Amino acid sequence: MKKEKTRLIISCAFFVIFLGSIFAITGIIKNSEKEHSVATLNIALRSGTHADVITKLLPEFEHKFNIKCNVKKFSEEELRNEIISDVKTDSSTYDLCMIDGSWTAEFIANKIATDLTDFYQLDDDIIEATKTVCYKDEKLYMAPYYGNVTVLLYNKLLIHEAGFKVENIDSIEDMLEICQEVNRHHNLGFMYRGDTENNIVVDFLPFLLAHNGWVLDKNNRPSVNTPEWHKAMETYLKLIKTGRAAKKEDLIAAITNKTAAMAIAWPGWYTPTKNSTIDYKAFKGKLNAESPAYNATIYGIWTLGIPSSSRNKKYAGKLLNFIMDPENQKKSVFTGGVPCRYSSLTDPEVLKKFPQYDAVRKALETGVYRPQIKEWPEFYTILGKEMRLIINGNKSIDSGLADAQTELEKLMNSK
């Protein structure tokens, strides 16, 4: 009897252990199925705030759609080369990528970007002018994600101490007067970016537009050796004489520390608060109080696109819709995002914390994209090289612009 009891206890124990094993194995299988993603997306992003804003959204997306996201971050030049190389080799590494607004013509013409018609549509909440480079022949290829646009960055205290009011800065003439006065008091006036050919050109473009000039004519031919260019260069040389060239980090530090008065900058560089000594406003394309105001803010907008070599376009489309969702765009503001959406840039909650986003909206509404030509990287390299020679005093304005015109015509005629 005692032996039978013992056998019964042992049998029950084994049965309990058996059931426990079954439940454990079932749980492992279920958890394994849950953890196994339906897809894995590889994303190529521009390093810095632009990428950080997206990476902070990804955990919610991954949880909601059971899609894993791998992110790689690159410098601007590295990102462009990486995407082009990936598509050319058809290696299908990337499924979603950031595309600078100045690359869009090249990426569409060379079939690097996918037609998004079946994956995403732009809505009316997105500022109209920011959409222009996203289409080709009525087909959508990109979505304007990060609303970088040139603004006038300045030190409030330094301008006040020089005897001026920030709200009265209405023209280039006002800027020059302030910078010359600040310079007389042994501070730097206007800081400009002179570290790369691209930065030299882009920093100057708002002043060129204010003189009603541009780098191309209506037929997309080089238009550099013109009266508008000459006058704009004369004005720019006077302005930069009050300061010096600097890289982005040094430029921000100089204005923050009251070493310099102002510069052309981008919202993605710095987010002022109510207690900041520096702030920014929309750049007005006016030469003086009597002159007309031209659209003179330059877009540095980062768009999002799906590479043509992606084999996960359906899931990449889900991610694109998630990132561009109005609510997610609004949330991104609080982590450094700059949406191109009215709902974000006019939201009372956003403006209460970041009042300068009203200036961003105004700048985005009047922005101008850099030329939509696939030769743009070669174009600005030639132009920036000649402008550097003029700025450094190695060439006169006349000879520098004449040489630039000649070289740019050779470039465009060779294509």
What's the SSE blueprint?
Elements: H1 2-35, E1 39-46, H2 49-65, E2 67-74, H3 76-88, E3 96-100, H4 104-109, E4 135-136, E5 139-140, E6 143-146, E7 151-155, H5 156-161, H6 172-184, E8 188-191, H7 197-210, H8 227-240, H9 248-256, E9 260-265, E10 278-282, E11 297-298, E12 302-305, H10 313-324, H11 326-333, H12 342-345, H13 348-353, H14 357-365, E13 367-368, H15 376-391, H16 397-413
Parallel strand pairs: 1-2, 1-3, 8-9, 11-13
Antiparallel strand pairs: 3-12, 4-5, 6-12, 7-9, 7-10
Write a structural description:
This protein is of the alpha/beta class. It folds into two domains: 39-148 and 300-368, D-Maltodextrin-Binding Protein, domain 2; 151-298 and 375-413, D-Maltodextrin-Binding Protein, domain 2, CATH 3.40.190. It has helices spanning 2-35, 49-65, 76-88, 104-109, 156-161, 172-184, 197-210, 227-240, 248-256, 313-324, 326-333, 342-345, 348-353, 357-365, 376-391, 397-413, and strands spanning 39-46, 67-74, 96-100, 135-136, 139-140, 143-146, 151-155, 188-191, 260-265, 278-282, 297-298, 302-305, 367-368. The strands form four sheets. A five-stranded mixed beta sheet has the order 2-1-3-12-6. It has a four-stranded mixed beta sheet with strand order 8-9-7-10. α7 packs across α8, α7 (197-210) packs across α15 and α15 runs antiparallel to α16. The chain is globular.
Name of the CATH superfamily of the largest domain: Periplasmic binding protein-like II
Shape: globular
Cα end-to-end separation: 101 Å
Regarding CATH, which class of the largest domain?
Alpha Beta
Strand content: 5-15%
What structural category characterises the helix and strand content? alpha/beta
Count all strands and give the number.
Answer: 13
